[in-house]
Amino acid sequence: MRSCISKPCATRKHLEKEPKEAYQRLRGGLYELQLTTDGPATTGAEVTITASLVADDNGSLVLPTSTHFYRFHWIHTPLMLMGKTDEPFSSTIRVVGNVAGDFPVSVWVTAANCRMCRPMARSFLVLPITEFLVGSLVVTQNTSLPWPSSYLTKTVLRVAFLLHDPSNFFKTASFLYRWDFGDGTQLVTNDATVYYNYSIIGTFTIKVKVVAQWEQAMPDAGKGTMQKTGDFSASLKLQETLRGIQVVGPTLIQTFQKMIVTLNFLGSPPLSVCWRLKPECLPLEEGECQPVSVDSTAYNLTHTFRDPGDYCFSIRAENVISKTHQYHRIQVWPSSIQPAVFAFPCATLITMMLAFIMYMTLRNAAHHKDLVENPEPPTGVRCCCQMCCGPFLLETPSEYLEVVRENHGLLPPLYKSVKTYTV
């Protein structure tokens, strides 16, 4: 009877079963291929592409431990293969492109003992090859702003060109840099890093033209000078700290009169502006007013006061860099011009008063004219007046009798003469 040690026997059985279980996992789509590359690259430079077999559910499955269970297959033409390296769960190739273009590269995995079987996992990528230099401009500043590509004026900027050359293709090349900072300033350097200070706000584009030059062995055993160029740019927005607010407006106004106050901001927009009227000049607390967005350096406030008194405009403004406060005192006096709601009643009353005054004036003028034309009242009226009121107006009876004589002539004698006859 054959004897065996349990542990080695169990290990041998496990190795016999593992390929079959792993193959079923791959067929079920439980694994995938991930591709990484150090491209893009310039023509003539080496590019590395790596394919890695990973679990499809973020690594919760166990990959097979057998290193000879699967095989990687690559398609990379027309790229020239410079080398290939296979590891237990990955495969790496190094290729070179001699012409510019976008080239597809595909890879798939099969069982090691079945090259013609259905692929267990596959992937592909497109590799860009250019005839120009590959790189980027990086702009940094000591002050970090929350907005992308935003920087401070009057603060030094560090601008650096980073060449993308993982294969050290340009290790013997010399470089020349022609800088254009977008504000009229140009510079030529041999260094890939420059420092610059913008004095005004605005949006600028930094451009740099890079020229690489090196010697290369030629087929005829000689040496030739090779050259590659590249144009790169970076856009940046220069902003200022908010240094203050200039308030232009009246300090004395009447009630029910529209007031306009202009705010001039000494800083760069966009701004968040908040204001409120207070009896005293005190800073605004958070949530005390509703902020408005301002996209310029000037803003107009309008307000109409209904009650007289002393007021203070408390103003707060901030941009992405800083914030500031400002105050504006104003005195409001009662207005002699009432609001429109009282205009019609007042106008009606004034019109009625003017009409009454005109009526009384015309009436008195007409009466005066009659007195001038007829200074003596009619006889009947005068007689009646004198007869009725005479005794009361005259001081003595003799005066009254005098008036009666004037009006009636001589009165008959109060006694008759007695005739005498003689017989």
From TrEMBL:
It is a single-pass type I membrane protein. It is found in: Golgi apparatus membrane. Pfam families: PKAT_KLD (PF20433). This is Transmembrane protein 130. GO terms for cellular component: Golgi membrane. Keywords: Glycoprotein, Golgi apparatus, Membrane, Signal, Transmembrane, Transmembrane helix. It comes from Sus scrofa. Its main location: Golgi. The lineage of its organism: Eukaryota, Metazoa, Chordata, Craniata, Vertebrata. It comes from the Eukaryota. The gene is TMEM130. The keyword Cell division does not apply. The chain crosses the membrane at residues 340-362. The keyword Cell wall biogenesis/degradation does not apply. Residues 177-210 form the PKD domain. SUPFAM superfamilies: PKD domain (SSF49299).
